Structure formats: C-alpha cells, structure tokens
C-alpha cells in the first residue's frame, strides 16, 4: 500500500489538473462564444460596417430586405455621413420569448439626441461544435422620401441626388441620421433632417427652396436696367413698352425727361413648378415745359407717377433673363 501511495497521489494530481483544465476550457469557450460569436457581437460588426461606409458588408450582415428605392444612402460617403458622431452607450442582449432567438437593444447618441434601436437575431447553427452562429432576422430597411417643389435635385448626406418631378425615395440603414438640403448660385433650401432608428421606418423630408441673395441681386439689376432704359427714352410722355406714362391736354415742349425715384422691391417665390416675381411697384418723375392750349401760358411740368408691372423670369444654366409684362 505504501508503495502505491505515490502513484495514487500522482493520479489524483493529474485528475485534478485535468478537471481544472476542462473547467478552464469550458469558461474560455463560454466567454469566446458570448463575446466573439454572440448576438451583440454581430450588431457590433454591423455598426462598424456602416460607420466605415461599407454598405455591401453591412447589407450582408443585416440580412435586410432592400425596398424599391434609390440606393444613394447605402454606401460610401453618404453612408459614412449618416452615422458621423454615433456614440454607442450600451449594447444589451435580451432573450426572446421564442427559443433560439435574442434581441439586442442598442442605446446610442446621434445628432445630439439619445435613442434606441432593437435588432432581432436568431441562432442558425454552430461553428466548430462549440460556438453559436447568430444571424439577423430579415426585415425591411427604412426609407426616407425627399420632396423639393421647383427642384429636380438635392444634397442628401453630402451627396448630390436626383429628384425626378421634385421627389424621390431612398433606402437607408439604421440607426442613421439623414439630412437633405439644396444650395446653388440662385436657390437654396435650409437643411431638413431626421433619425431612422428601426426597420421599416419611413420619414418625409420636404425642402422649401428660396431665392438666394445672389439671384435677388441679379434680378434687381435686370429690373433697374429695364427701367433706366425706359427713363432714357427722350421726349416721350409714354415711353413705348414701359410701365409709366403721363396724360395731359396741354402741349408739352421738349425736352421731356423721366427719372426713377423709387425702384421696385424684388420678391421671388415658387409657384406651380416655376419661379415668379411679385408685382413690381415703383415711382417715377416726368419733367418738361407745358403750354396751356386755351391761354397759351407756359409752366413747368413736374409730375410724380406711381407705376406697377409684372415680369416673366427665366432661369437657365446660361443665366437669368427678365421679360416685362405691361398691361
């Protein structure tokens, strides 16, 4: 018995070491399974893909149904911009009521607001016998509809997009921030934005375009040029094609001069798919010498005349043109 005691002791030590090794291996497998292959890790991989602007990878991970919509937001710079500043606050795994399923609740801060997105995953198999495989359950991507009356394009997350007939619908990932705006030399629309936090979300962004200061200044210059040309017509009480005139029973002797005292204020607004000018109102002064036909007496003619007229505005890549409409 004494001789076998060292053998028993060695076997005991070996068995204890083996049990500890197995226990350590089980713990390691459990940790790796939870941290590397668990549902939260899949969400983390998806978030990294959309932050990198890798739409193809993100779409493959998310296993989402892509709606019939424009894909401008699903890749590259527009996708990266949609998650710029995303701050993950917490990833929480919540077991679902159905076996083999789990929900991952993402708490985050984006665009200065805190929100949550929930991802539904299901176990689809095992890898190397020990590690669970999790996949996202198929769901529809969110969509955003951008409408811009009087415009056929816009800027969406920094990317130029087309708006046929003033509107278009875009598919997007979530969570994301979608911002639409429009800026050109002649028109601009302040930014409109919204957060997309879950599958199937649908938001509408409407851009209200307005004339830029550059366009107003350009049209104002055209209006002043037109009126100055009218005032430059010599010796006419009613310059042809002009909005101001003077009627009198007296005989008016030249020189007859006109002076614009007050130029119209230019106001441009959208209407029925076009850009229109508000009625143009101003004040002019005519100066001359008049003779009374009955007495023959002469006197200065100085009259201020208020006038009003309309104008058709044409804006093309070639520039801005103005056509006065005199009734």
Which tags fit this structure?
four-stranded antiparallel beta sheet; alpha+beta; rod-shaped; 18 strands; Nuclear Transport Factor 2, Chain: A; 327 residues
How many domains? The number is: 3
Main structural class: alpha+beta
Radius of gyration: 38 Å
| Unreliable stretches covering 5 or more consecutive residues | 23-35
- N-end to C-end Cα span: 129 Å
* Number of DSSP helical runs: 5
Shape: rod-shaped
CATH architecture classification of the largest domain: Roll
In percent, how helical is the residue content? 10-25%
Major sheet: order of its strands? 7-6-9-10-12
CATH fold-level label of the largest domain: Nuclear Transport Factor 2, Chain: A
Strand content: 35-45%
Largest sheet: 5 strands, antiparallel
* Count of DSSP strands: 18
Average pLDDT number: 88
Order of helices and strands: HHHHEEEEEEEEEEEEHEEEEEE
Under the CATH scheme, which class of the largest domain? Alpha Beta
Question: Layout of helices and strands, plus pairs?
Answer:
Elements: H1 5-35, H2 39-51, H3 55-62, H4 76-82, E1 87-95, E2 101-110, E3 113-127, E4 131-136, E5 143-147, E6 153-156, E7 159-162, E8 167-171, E9 176-183, E10 187-196, E11 202-206, E12 210-211, H5 213-231, E13 251-262, E14 268-271, E15 274-277, E16 280-291, E17 298-316, E18 319-325
Parallel strand pairs: 5-11
Antiparallel strand pairs: 1-2, 2-3, 3-4, 5-8, 6-7, 6-9, 9-10, 10-12, 13-16, 14-15, 16-17, 17-18
Helix pairs in contact: 2-3
Question: What is shown here, in short?
Answer:
The protein is an alpha+beta fold. Helices cover 24% and strands 43% of the residues.
């Amino acid at each position: 018995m004494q001789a076998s005691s060292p053998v028993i002791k060695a076997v005991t030590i070996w068995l204890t070491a083996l049990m500890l090794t197995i226990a350590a291996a089980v713990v390691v497998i459990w940790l790796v399974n939870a941290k590397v292959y668990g549902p939260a890790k899949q969400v983390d991989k998806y978030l990294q893909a959309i932050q990198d602007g890798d739409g193809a990878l993100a779409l493959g991970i998310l296993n989402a149904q892509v709606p019939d919509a424009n894909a401008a937001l699903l890749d590259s710079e527009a996708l990266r911009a949609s998650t710029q500043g995303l701050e993950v606050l917490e990833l929480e795994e919540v077991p679902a009521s159905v076996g083999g399923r789990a929900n991952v609740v993402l708490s985050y801060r984006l665009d200065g607001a805190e929100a949550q997105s929930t991802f539904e995953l299901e176990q689809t198999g095992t890898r190397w016998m020990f590690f669970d495989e999790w996949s996202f359950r198929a769901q529809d991507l969110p969509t955003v509809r951008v409408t811009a009356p009087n415009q056929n394009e816009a800027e969406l997350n920094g990317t130029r997009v087309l708006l046929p007939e003033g509107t278009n619908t875009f598919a997007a990932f979530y969570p994301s921030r979608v911002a639409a705006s429009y800026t050109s030399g002649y028109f601009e629309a302040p930014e409109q934005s919204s957060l997309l936090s879950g599958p199937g979300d649908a938001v509408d962004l409407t851009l209200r375009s307005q004339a830029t200061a550059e366009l107003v200044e350009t049209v104002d210059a055209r209006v002043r040029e037109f009126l100055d040309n009218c005032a430059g017509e010599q010796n006419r009480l009613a310059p042809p094609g002009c909005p101001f005139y003077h009627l009198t029973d007296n005989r008016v002797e030249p020189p007859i001069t006109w002076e614009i005292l007050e130029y119209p204020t230019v106001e441009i607004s959208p209407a029925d798919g076009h850009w229109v000018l508000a009625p143009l109102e101003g004040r002019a002064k005519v100066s001359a010498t008049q003779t009374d036909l009955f007495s023959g007496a002469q006197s200065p003619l100085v009259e201020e005349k208020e006038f009003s007229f309309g104008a058709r505005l044409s804006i093309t890549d070639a520039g801005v043109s103005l056509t006065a409409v005199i009734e």
